[in-house]
Structures are given as C-alpha cells and as structure tokens.
Amino acid sequence: MTYRDKTESGNSETNTPRHLLDNNLAWATSIKEKEPDFFSKLSQQQTPEYLWIGCSDSRVPVNQIIDLMPGQVFVHRNIANVIVQSDLNSLSVIQYAVDVLKVKHIIVCGHYGCGGIAAAIEDKEHGLIDNWLQHIKNVIRVHSDELKKLKGDTLHKRLCELNVIEQVINICNTTIVKCAWKRGANLNVNGWIYSLENGLIHDLNIQIGSTSDLKQKLDSF
Ligand code: CO
After folding, report:
1. pLDDT at 7
2. How far is the CA of 117 from the centre of ligand 1 (A)?
3. Of the listed 5, 59, 153, 203, which one is catalytic?
4. CA 15 / ligand 1 centre spacing (Å)
5. Cβ contacts of residue 202 below 8 Å, gap of 6+?
6. Where would I find the beta strands (DSSP E) of the chain?
7. Domain count, the chain
8. Does residue 57 carry a catalytic annotation?
9. Which of 16, 66, 97, 157 is the most exposed place for a label (fewest CB within 10 A)?
10. Are residues 88 and 177 in the same domain?
C-alpha cells in the first residue's frame, strides 16, 4: 500500500516527493507490527537521556549512526555544530534539554570532511554564511600556534576536532549548564567526532561534568 492509497488524497499534479511519504508509511507500519503501542506510548512523553549537537550534513543522521529509536535523543543541528552564547535557537534547545528533560549527557559530535570547517579555512568569500563561519575562524585564531604547523587534510581534521572541543567549552560556559552543575545535576558534556569514511565515532576524550572539571580542562590547554 502506498501513501496515496492510504489517504486517497493523492494529486499527481503536485511535486510532493511522495516516495518519502510511502517510506514513512512503511516505516511506521513496521514499527507498529513489532510494538503496537509504540507511538501511542511515545506521544504521551519524551524522556531522552542525551542531547546531541551535530552538523546539519546529510551524511551524519544522528538516530541512525548511534542506533537510537524515536524518543531517545534530543537533537540540535547546525552548520559545523557551533554553539555561541548569542544564538537564542541553540540556547533554547540546551535549556529545554537540561532544565526540563534533564538529559544526563550533552554530546557535541563534529565530523571529518565538514564543509563548514573547510570553508572557514579557505581564504574566500561565501556571503552571509561567513558571519557564522567567523565562529570557526575564531577557533583557528585561538589555536593558531598548533594549526599554523599543519596543512591540507591534517589541518582540516585537526580543526574539526578543535572546533568540537571549543564548542564543548562554550556549552559548559553557558549559564544553563553552570546553573545545572550548581544545583548538583548529573550532567556531562562530551566531545566526539564522526568519520564519513568508515561510519565510526571517535571519542575526543573531553568529558566535562562540573565547574572544577572545566577549570582543570581549561588549565590544560
Ligand atoms: Co559538517
């Protein structure tokens, strides 16, 4: 059965990508066959333990790469997984995840081969997005001693990693996370990176779970 059969509202004149609706119907049906009350239960509430902050890149689909079902991970994605204190959008996501959903882990997951990172390295104009990429250019400036020794793919990969680390620190420095730690919340901020080439996530071994942890990590840079 296709979406059109099911809804009887198909209109061949439109450009709706109907195959996606067909996919959706097949997906929802297969889940309901295994667990009939899956959606009705999930519609009552969500209790994810994780907030994922990743890149918008279509090759890094969060639920698939960490094999989680709907309801298990709260998600925010933008170009090059950047978190800045002036971005009301990402701060609102973090606040809801921390204060209401009470997630235990925030995971910043960058990826090698990131177009945003590549564009930030280039000495070229890209229009409006350069305002966003400036945040990554700031990461280049902060780590210039290390990065100026690197070139090509090595430079790109290291900047992908350093960008994740800087975003972890930015998240830890939000009032949201600081207040959560102050009230004794069990909340860790983690930095990971995903490889498009083999589908594997590498842990950058930066996990921060308290204000003293943060101070220690900052002193080590
Ligand atoms: Co990317």
Report:
1. 55
2. 7
3. 59
4. 29
5. 192, 193, 194, 195
6. 50-55, 73-78, 105-111, 188-194, 201-208
7. 2
8. yes
9. 16
10. yes
Mean pLDDT computed over 40-45:
93
Q: Is 76 helix (H, G, I), strand (E, B) or coil?
A: strand
Active site residue 59: yes
Q: Name residues whose C-beta falls within 8 Å of residue 56's C-beta, 6 or more positions apart in sequence.
A: 77, 78, 79
Q: Are residues 6 and 95 in the same domain?
A: no
- Tell me how far apart the alpha carbons of residues 180 and 186 are, in angstroms, rounded to a whole number: 8
Q: What is the residue whose two structure tokens read 């969500």?
A: 46
115-154 tens-digit pLDDT: 999 999 998 999 999 999 999 999 999 999 999 999 999 9
What's the confidence (pLDDT) of residue 3?
Answer: 57
CATH number of the CATH domain containing 212 = 3.40.1050.10
For residue 152, the tally of other CB atoms under 10 A from its CB is 8
Which long-range contacts (C-beta less than 8 Å, at least 24 apart) are formed by 82-91?
82/116, 82/132, 82/135, 82/136, 82/163, 82/167, 83/53, 83/108, 83/167, 83/170, 83/171, 83/174, 84/135, 84/170, 85/170, 85/173, 85/174, 90/53, 91/174, 91/176
pLDDT of 14 > 80? The answer is: no
Classify strands 188-194 and 201-208 as parallel, antiparallel or unpaired: antiparallel
Q: Of 76, 105, 109, 111, which residue is the catalytic one?
A: 111
160 is known as an active-site residue: no
67 is catalytic: no
Catalytic residue among 114, 143, 160, 172: 114
User: Known catalytic residue: 202?
Assistant: no
Among 69, 86, 59, CA closest to 199: 59
